[in-house]
Amino acid sequence: MKRFLKNISPFNNKTEMPMIVYVVKIILAFLVCLFAGEIIAEGVVILIHFAVGKNPLEGEMFDPQTITLITYYGYIIVIGVTLLYWKLFRKKTLSDMGITKQIGNYFVGAVAAVLLVGLSVLAVMLTGAIKYHGIFKSIDFAMILLMLGGFIIQGAMEEILCRGVVLMSLKDKVPLPIGIGVSTVVFMVPHLPALSEGRPIFVLIGMLDLIIISVIFSLLTIRYDSIWAACGSHSVWNFVLFSILGLNLSGNDTKTAAIFDMRSVGENIFNGGKYGIEASVVTAVVLSAAAVLIFILNKKNAKG
Questions:
Q1: C-alpha to C-alpha distances, 279 to 5, 198, 263, 273, 291, nearest whole angstrom
Q2: Number of domains in the chain
Q3: By residue range, what is the domain housing residue 174?
Q4: pTM value?
Q5: Across residues 158-181, what is the average pLDDT?
Q6: What is the pLDDT of residue 304?
Q7: Which of 13, 113, 136, 191 would you call most buried, defined as having the most Cβ atoms within 10 angstroms of its Cβ?
């Protein structure tokens, strides 16, 4: 039992153990980084409220848009905690996590995200489930830039945890499908509360979309042996969907600055209802095609 507890502890860099034990160890590492970072970040947010004369314990809060920004930029703390954990307890380099010098891959992922969002939204528009109402007359470009910075941080945080800590730790120790599967599960869990608020059909489609997009991020990570492309794809997907097109992002319908005025028409399987196109069957088709394409390219790259 003592040996088992030592093996499974996320606070050492032991790797020689049964596969299932190692998988649990990495999941625990993910949870330690996520919860430790979020607890510290939450404390900082509370202190910020008190510093400006607001008492969050009595319901005195910033407006939703400001809270969104504080939350996203606060993820820097989660990233910092994760990197510190990686160096102190895993005793590995940043390149072992997939943070390599090939930062140009970030823009490969970003371009891929623009194409995927564009194709998905265009396809949904063809069904009549999303309507285009023009360009907003008054555009808060400063807020859009702030949101871009927030999405860069938020996307990087999730990818550092799910692809960096989890997938990069597992890919050489367990069969690749298991590594991708585990990273997909930990990626999905934080999204489930918002998704579960919708109708059952949207929950099912949303879970399918989450699985496919997570597989895409994992395949990009495997292809480049780096998390940069996944970070770029994740962040830009969110930014374009929310701050350029003004559509719901993962159930977040908080009104914020956007360039285009696009609105869902009713709630149906084409627009994903309140959760947005990330619970759309159309998005599932587009993402599935992209996942198959990346998988084929990866196979050819491996043979070459």
A1: 40, 10, 15, 7, 17
A2: 1
A3: 2-303
A4: 0.95
A5: 97
A6: 62
A7: 113
